[in-house]
Design a protein that fits this description.
The complex is a heterodimer of chains A (105) and B (81). Chain A starts with a helix and ends with a helix. Chain A is of the alpha+beta class and 105 residues long. Chain A has a single domain, classed as Glutaredoxin (3-Layer(aba) Sandwich). Helices cover 51% and strands 16% of the residues of chain A. Chain B has a three-stranded mixed β-sheet with strand order 1-2-3. In chain B, β1 and β2 (27-33) form a beta hairpin. The radius of gyration of chain B is 12 Å and the shape is globular. The chains are: A alpha+beta (105), B alpha+beta (81). Chain A binds chain B through residues 31, 66-69, 79-85, 88-89, and chain B through 42-43, 46-47, 50, 54, 57-58, 64, 66-69. Chain A: GO terms for molecular function: 2 iron, 2 sulfur cluster binding; disulfide oxidoreductase activity; metal ion binding. Chain A: This is Glutaredoxin. Chain A: Pfam families: Glutaredoxin.
């Protein structure tokens, strides 16, 4: 399976998935730490992929969404954005709306 | 790269009514106000800037740009009140 196929499978199988540097417990970048904090504040379960542990995913994820930076958040298979966009959508309440039906499960 | 340089690069991508860039040479923070953002969602606005800066981001010349806000002139005016 190609890297792009692996990523497609990951974002399809996990309703909320964060590609980040480090792990939710030990983020290795301030922007990734901020992204984890937002998802924790929302109280939603999420999968996390540590791109530092996989160079192919690290490069591949930038190509997958044509987005140059990490972290990257996907909800229900769709690319939501990076750290700045997560912050803005969280502040406006839109991010909470996007995951509202997932929390109920 | 200086904040002034980053500001000039962004101004070449889109006409800006207002632009502020701060940074330490590695991480930059921008507030960008442009009529070109009208009708675009947040993700699309960021893409306009990221695509325009792609060669600088890819080469590592520009390490990281954080967009604090991407606003239309009307949204900017509303925020000033």
């Amino acid at each position: 399976m190609s890297t792009q196929d692996t990523i497609r499978q990951q974002v399809t199988e996990n309703p909320v998935i964060l590609y980040m540097k480090g792990t939710p417990t030990f983020p290795q970048c301030g922007f990734s730490a901020g992204a984890v904090q937002i998802l924790k504040n929302l109280g939603v379960n999420f999968a996390a992929v540590n791109v530092l542990a996989d160079p192919e995913i690290r490069q591949g994820i930038k190509e997958f969404a044509n987005w140059p930076t990490i972290p990257q958040l996907y909800i229900k298979g769709e690319f939501v954005g990076g750290s700045d966009i997560m912050k803005e959508l969280y502040a406006s309440g839109e991010l909470a709306e996007m995951v509202a039906d997932l929390k109920a499960e | 790269m200086t904040p002034e340089h980053v500001q000039s690069l962004i101004s070449q991508i889109i006409p800006c009514e207002h632009i502020e860039v701060e940074g330490d040479g590695h991480h930059f923070y921008a507030t960008i106000v442009s009529a070109q953002f009208d009708g675009l969602k947040l993700l699309a606005r960021h893409r306009v800037i990221n695509d325009g800066l792609k060669s600088y981001l890819d080469s590592g010349e520009l390490h990281a740009l954080s967009m604090r806000a991407t606003l239309t002139p009307a949204e900017w005016a509303a925020r000033q009140q």
